[in-house]
Amino acid sequence: MPAGPRPDRPKALPGLTRPGRPFDLITIQAMNESEFLNDLVAGLEQSRLTARPMSWPPEPLGLEPAYAAALAVREMRIAAGDRPAGYKVGFTNRSIWPHYNVHAPIWGTVWQAGVTLAERGAAGPAVLSLDGLCEPRVEPEIVFCLRAAPPAGCSADELVAALDWVAHGFEIVHTHCPGWKFSAAQAVADAGLHGRLLVGERIAVPADLAAVDLVQALAGLRVQLYGQGLLKDEGKGVNVLDGPLQALLHFVRELRATPGAPALQAGDLVTTGTLTDAHPVQPGQTWHSQIEASGPVAGALAGLVVAFR
After folding, report:
1. How does residue 171 score in pLDDT terms, banded at 50, 70 and 90?
2. What span, in angstroms and rounded, lies between the C-alpha atoms of 77 and 64?
3. Nearest Cα to Cα of residue 185 among 48, 49, 44
4. Which of 45, 71, 161, 231 gives 20 to 30 Å between its CA and that of 151?
5. pLDDT above 50 for 166
6. Which of 96-100, 128-132, 288-292 bottoms out in mean pLDDT, i.e. has the lowest?
7. Helices 25-50 and 63-79: crossing angle, nearest 10°?
8. End-to-end CA distance of the chain
9. Quick one: which of 25, 7, 8, 4 has its CA closest to 16?
10. In angstroms, how far apart are the furthest CA atoms of the chain?
11. Nearest C-alpha neighbor of 117 from the set 72, 168, 175, 177
12. What's the CA gap between 45 and 99, in Å, rounded?
């Protein structure tokens, strides 16, 4: 009597062969996932280069393939000569989660070509181009720079010891999803929605500064955001995961948990999420912020003025 098929081996698919053995269901699934990822990466890069809406695949997109796609685009850009400057952490402001239908922070790459350092004492506003961005919005944030890579599983004190400076900044975010309608995974794949980063005056972090003092000072700061001279929004440091330093600590741990993510290194910038909602901006507009803060480092932060063209 002929033996039946082995139950522990996936059934071969008729008509599909490769040298030496037939394709099985596991192989076909892997091929489909690879093709899906390649198509997604190609679509994302095309949308970035043409500043046009992304044509998303009909299949639901999960966070793991979304980060895989974003990292693949990152490698393509590095191979083309772009230089990473650091990272952005998005959706750290829990108060805006319902508006965007997200429920956890995300992260993405910040690029050197998109970073502008505001000049101290400049006579006029910093100027940022919105060319190549889709439906851009402005976000007032707190930016950190690393003097060294923090150790794995670092404490807050170890993280503060790894900091070089802190600054107030404007992140310009944008999306290739029309009307700012997207899933969290689509936002991840879409470069974390990052467009540009304006960094204000950099305040050095003292080597002996206790983490608890920096946590309290940054969590307690307040910001007012003005567009064309009109107050648009107000926010506070505690909005971003209870404080910007806590948001940075969350990111440091999340980055290391993401398969294939690059290692942090000295000189990396990390902007930690908007203190208010994100607000639409257009060429020809001027926006500015005012900071109210006290305590170490935070008390020295100043507002920014930016003119968009």
Report:
1. very high
2. 20
3. 44
4. 71
5. yes
6. 96-100
7. 60
8. 80
9. 25
10. 93
11. 168
12. 27
- Is the CB of residue 61 less than 8 Å from the CB of residue 189? yes
Interatomic CA distance for residues 83 and 285, integer angstroms: 29
Q: What number of other Cβ atoms are within 10 A of residue 111's Cβ?
A: 20
> What is the Cα–Cα distance from 151 to 253, expressed in whole angstroms?
10
Please give the structure tokens belonging to residue 179: 């009307």
- Separation of CA 195 from chain center: 10
Residues 6+ apart with CB under 8 A from 121: none
Q: How far apart, in whole angstroms, are the C-alpha atoms of residue 227 and residue 175?
A: 21
Mean per-residue pLDDT over the chain, rounded: 90
- Taking domain 84-308, whether its CATH number is 1.10.1510.10 is answered by no
Of 175, 239, 166, nearest to 203 (Cα)? Answer: 166
What is the residue extent of each domain of the chain? 84-308
Across 84-97, b (16+ Cβ under 10 Å) vs e yields bbbbbbbbbbbebe
How far apart CA 287 and CA 178 sit, in angstroms, is 24
Residue ranges of alpha helices (H) inside the chain are 25-50, 63-79, 97-100, 156-161, 184-189, 211-219, 244-257
What are the phi and psi torsion angles at 91 (to 5°)? Answer: 55, 40
Angle at 138 between CA 291 and CA 144, to 5 degrees: 55
pLDDT at 4 over 70: no
Measured in degrees and rounded to the nearest 5, phi and psi for residue 239 equal -65, -30
Under DSSP, is residue 246 helix (H, G, I), strand (E, B) or coil?
Answer: helix
Neighbours of 63 (CB within 10 A): 15
DSSP 101: T
